[in-house]
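Lab notebook, bench 4. Still working through the backlog of constructs that have no structural model yet. Next entry is a single chain of 118 residues. Request: give me the structure tokens for it.
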Amino acid sequence: MSHAPHDEARLPGDQEDPSGGPTWVIGLAGAILTAVTVLGVSALYYWAERREQHHTIVNVRSQEAEIRRAADAMALINEPHWEQWTDADGVLAGERTLVVPIAEARGIVKKRWGGESP
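Model written out:
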């Protein structure tokens, strides 16, 4: 950056500082490339995190959940029946209860307590 003349021989087009135009172009291109890279990596990270969360939380398919779903499905299609429970000694515990599938129970409740529609 000195402005003092040099004693050495200079080549044509030789200068001490690089020209400003290419320096600005390379600097701006580097900044844009860095920003795009950071945004791309961030987007990839959050996409993978969201996908993993959806897979582990929403799509839970454990053996216990499958057994529970099967039991719930069977409970919905059962025939109405009476149940009476006994304790470990075989002594009756409680009264008999009528077990009715939910679809039939809903109809009974509508008939008994449902208001008439206009």
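Notes after review: The mean pLDDT is 81. The longest strand covers residues 92-99. Flag for follow-up if needed.
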